[in-house]
Fold:
Amino acid sequence: MKLLKIISLQLFLYSQFGVAQETAYTEQEQEVLKAQSDRISAMIIADVETLNLLLAEDLSYAHTTGWTETKSGYLETVKSGKIDYQKFVPGDIKVRFYGETAVLTGKVDVNLGRTDFTIRFLEVQRKVNGIWKL
Structure:
């Protein structure tokens, strides 16, 4: 199972590199996409320490089911394995800036072990002390 996660993570990172090659992202957009990539990598391997750094204190994480969690709740969910991300590959990403806030939209292919699906996403990141946070 761990090997599958590592392979999924590698595929995700390769796909991010491919997306960056196809789309001419600005340096600022690349910064935000790097933060997204780092966060997704941490989600897949359940690296709660890294997630803690990349999530804002006032996080409201909305799942596809409509269930929402605070930062502490989401970290506990990832740590406990209640949600076990096998694959989380974003694509068709658009980034818009409003001062120190970035709004990302796109689609993401997700695998949670027994469930595969593709969804559209809306993500808001804010730069806090030089770090882009969800």
In short: Residues 88 and 110 are 5 Å apart (CA to CA). Strands lie at 61-62, 68-69, 87-98, 101-111, 116-128, 131-133. The chain has one domain: 2-133. The chain is about 40% helix and 30% strand.
